[in-house]
Amino acid sequence: MTISDIAAEYGLNEEERKEFYDNVHNYFADCEEIREHDLTFLERWREIYAYAEKNSAAEAINKYVSPKRTVNFKQPDKVKMEIYDSFAGEIPIIYLENADDFEQLVTNTVYKGIRPDDLSKTGASFAFGRSTRFIMLSAKPYSNVPASEMGLDEQVWADRSMIIRREHECTHYFTKQVFGISRNSIHDEIMADFFGIYEAFGYYKAEYFLRFMGISGTSGGRLDFYTNDLSQNVKKAVSKTAETAASYLEKWSASEEFSRMTREQRIRLLCKTGLEGMCENA
After folding, report:
1. In this structure, is the dihedral angle defined by the CA atoms of residues 172, 178, 181 and 185, taken in order, positive or negative?
2. DSSP result, 126-153
3. To 10 degrees, what angle do helices 232-253 and 206-213 make?
4. pLDDT average, residue stretch 252-267
5. Residue 56: how many CB atoms within 10 A of its CB?
């Protein structure tokens, strides 16, 4: 099924087709790769990590990461830190199992002490600046889908939710590092969730992604965030595109081609293929 087939299936008019094509366009294909990367921020983070190992991650955060707006951690012993050697390169990650601790740290570091209204729905945050960058992760159920809906124990799902978020954010980090862009789009999200799900479970199921997006199931609803400004018909076409692409990814992840590739080769292929290529090969 092609993107044009999906547009025809939902009877999109000329204006709606433009809106739809803009939404599913492969923007990575328009970018040149960035050859040089400024990684000097890691030097500072190595100092912070060394302090955390001698004392605690919570103390290191208040001393170095958020000194002007310190966090009164409810569970400081549940705060961990590492410089994660991801496929996208080393990146500092702060893990916060307590939801309140996560939300307070994000408020203090990303929003300069002013808490956004919808922060309770957020489970990960990436602080990306010139002089520093780091990821903050919570153990909230991923995409607000409860453990019962996933058929998992609460703690198992909390652990896997963190893994999904970590690999999801590292995927965004890769596209930002290599192509200079990381967008709130279905193409970006389907790739990021793909690698998150695969790393957390050891396999990829389209059903999980559809639940997280709210295309199936009753709890997830992230698709609304990425299609909020689209007309109703276009939303349906984007949803169908995501469903078709997810079906392709499940089939591809079980292929011999996939098993022979490195993580970087896999994401480069998906960036090159785009949603249109995924749908055509589903």
Report:
1. negative
2. EEE-SS-EEEEEE-SPGGG--HHHHT--
3. 150
4. 97
5. 17
pTM reported for the whole predicted model: 0.95
Q: What is the mean pLDDT of residues 158-183?
A: 94
Helix (H, G, I), strand (E, B) or coil at 253: helix
d(CA 100, CA 143) in angstroms, rounded, equals 17
CA–CA distance, 216 with 187 (Å, rounded to integer): 18
The amino acid occupying position 245 is A
Note the Cα 182 to chain centre separation in Å. 10
Across 220-226, average pLDDT: 87
Side chain identity at 258, as an amino acid letter? F
Q: How far apart are CA 169 and CA 256, in angstroms?
A: 26
pLDDT tens readout for residues 68-111: 999 999 999 999 999 999 999 999 999 999 999 999 999 999 99
Dihedral over alpha carbons 20, 22, 26, 30 (to 10 degrees): 160
* Rg for the chain, CA atoms, rounded: 19
Which amino acid appears at position 260 of this protein?
R
**Tens of pLDDT along 175-209?**
999 999 988 899 999 999 999 999 999 999 999 99
* CA distance linking residue 149 with residue 248, whole number of Å: 23
Helices (H), the chain: 3-9, 14-24, 41-54, 57-60, 99-109, 147-150, 154-179, 186-201, 206-213, 222-227, 232-253, 256-260, 263-280
